[in-house]
Amino acid sequence: MANESHDHQRIMAAAGTSLANNRAGGRRSIGKRSAELKRQHIGKKAARMAMAVGVVMVAAMAAGIVLDGIGFTGVMVLALAIVAALWFFATFPKMKVPQLSALNTGDVRTMVGRTELWLEAQRPALPAPAVQLVDQIGVQLDGLGLQLEGIDPAEPAVGEVRRLVGEHLPGMVESWRKIPPHLRREERGGRNADQQLADGLGKISTEIDEITRQLAAGDLDALAVRGRYLDYRYGEGLEATPQIEAPKGV
Question: Which residue among 23, 34, 68, 74 is the one 20 to 30 A from 229 at the CA level?
Answer without folding.
Answer: 34
